[in-house]
TrEMBL record:
It catalyses: 3-O-(beta-D-galactosyl-(1->3)-beta-D-galactosyl-(1->4)-beta-D-xylosyl)-L-seryl-[protein] + UDP-alpha-D-glucuronate = 3-O-(beta-D-GlcA-(1->3)-beta-D-Gal-(1->3)-beta-D-Gal-(1->4)-beta-D-Xyl)-L-seryl-[protein] + UDP + H(+). Keywords: Glycoprotein, Golgi apparatus, Manganese, Membrane, Metal-binding, Signal-anchor, Transferase, Transmembrane, Transmembrane helix. Its EC number is 2.4.1.135. This is Galactosylgalactosylxylosylprotein 3-beta-glucuronosyltransferase. Pathway: Protein modification; protein glycosylation. InterPro entries: Glyco_trans_43, Nucleotide-diphossugar_trans.
Amino acid sequence: QNYKNAKRFYLIEIQMPRLPRRRQMMMVLCGAATLLLLLTALVHTDTQRYYSPLRIADKLATQREQIAEVAAADADTFEPGSDGVCSGRRWPRGVRPLYIITPTYPRAEQIPELTRTGQTLLHVDALVWIVVEDVNKATKAVLHYLKSSGLCYVYLKARMPVKYQKLKTKPRGVANRNAGLTWIRKHAKRGGVIYFADDDNTYDRRIFEQIRGTKKVSMFPVGLVTKLGVSSPVVRDGKVTDFYDGWISNRKFAVDMAGFAVSVEKFLNSPKAAMPYIAGREETKFLESLNISNIDIEPLANNCQEILVWHTRTFKNAPARPSPKEINITDSNIQSLLKQLWNGKR
Ligand code: UGA
Ligand code: MN
């Protein structure tokens, strides 16, 4: 045993250093070169290519968040101050603020709809986007989207009262719009313009600049409404004399929700102005509560000759089904995707 140990000691500790000097140098050099090669390889490896999909997803999410943060910093202020406006480069002095009330509710299309609407609104200066969700508990994805949107926004919750939830024809978005109006009554200290922008419409950004001058109530055509294809005030000599709409039914103002804007000043001067829970009569009843008549209506969109808003609507998708067993998704990007899908729960 002793002999064996002595031999090993001799081989490792004594014989090695006794190699010829040239060979020793070569060994050191070879070692150094190998180390250098390894180091270079490590530095130049495209780490993303060799990471697991889960880590790629994580990394992309972080990158997205960083981009959103930069956008956020760029937009300056995200939530209106006590006077109901934001500040920063999107808020030039002296420009009247627009208060855009958007009712929304959880469904498969909710985030796509808000993305489309929100990105249209990004083209508009001095705008407060009041997003009101028909829920008891906020949808996380909505909050996340708003936070990263770069818009000056207000998020509110307003669930449709239970007795209306049971109706066959529901007064959709009414609780939401009234909550938005209450916020405006309390906060819109510098005046401005109110517009009800449902999340299922398409907006030409020019309409936002046109409504900015609204003195009392302005009106304009909305495309893709009823079988007539358009809903619009009837304008003669620059004055509104009547309404062209597929559903007149005794309505004093037969207009679509997206077809009018109201000045904050006019709204504040009508303390009782609100939207009733009467399906199909929300628009006319709200306008009637403002005590206006046809002479007060300011026709926009080139005397209502152009369509700048459409009730596009979106194909209704079923909630996402649970993932099938035969596809292996463990430790993959699919987990992040599944979290973003609507599963039918409110
Ligand atoms: C339109 C009007 O916006 C409704 O106020 C009105 O009740 C309806 O016409 C009518 O005249 O009967 P519509 O296009 O039919 O509504 O309905 P949606 O687009 O589904 O809903 C209007 C808005 O309310 C949307 O922004 C939607 O996101 C929201 N909504 C809808 C809710 O907040 N909760 C709901 O349960 C359904
Ligand atoms: Mn709609």
